[in-house]
């Protein structure tokens, strides 16, 4: 038996969409978007997003069109956008739907209910946002959502979780 360092069924680079390959090389910190309350909570790991500092501040994200989060965000109009750290990579996989979570993803971690939705207590940096429904539209395979930032909490981040080229990476200097 041979052990390979790459996935044996992975599509060769030359057969992949070049724009998606480029996007994968950009790299970004990983965020967790959550919305709802109680059993009506939903969340999604999002690494395609942008935060704009202005008056008011805005966050723009690309969400999976069939995600429970998108449905909950449409219903509530609010969400929490939390930045994840290196220690939360398994949680990121669970909310991305690539790792199982018996009993549901909200069984992992400790959660605090805010007026914008559930907040992961171990994520010290987060936003409370309100959806701008007029700025939501389909973009390719995703839905672009834009939200107004209503609350900002900047905590001490020990080591951010970065996603680049399909993998999580720990930056050499986290500061």
UniProtKB/TrEMBL annotation:
Q: Where is the Flavin reductase like domain?
A: 23-170
| Pfam families listed in its UniProt record | Flavin_Reduct
Matches recorded under InterPro entries: Flavin_Rdtase-like_dom (IPR002563), Split_barrel_FMN-bd (IPR012349)
Q: Which residues cross the membrane?
A: none
**Gene3D superfamilies reported in the protein's UniProt record:** Electron Transport, Fmn-binding Protein, Chain A (2.30.110.10)
Query: Looking at the record's lineage, which domain of life comes first?
Result: Bacteria
Write down the SUPFAM superfamilies for this protein, in alphabetical order.
Answer: FMN-binding split barrel
Q: What is this protein called?
A: Flavin reductase like domain-containing protein
What's the source species for this entry?
A: Terrabacter aeriphilus
What taxonomic ancestry is recorded?
Bacteria, Bacillati, Actinomycetota, Actinomycetes, Micrococcales
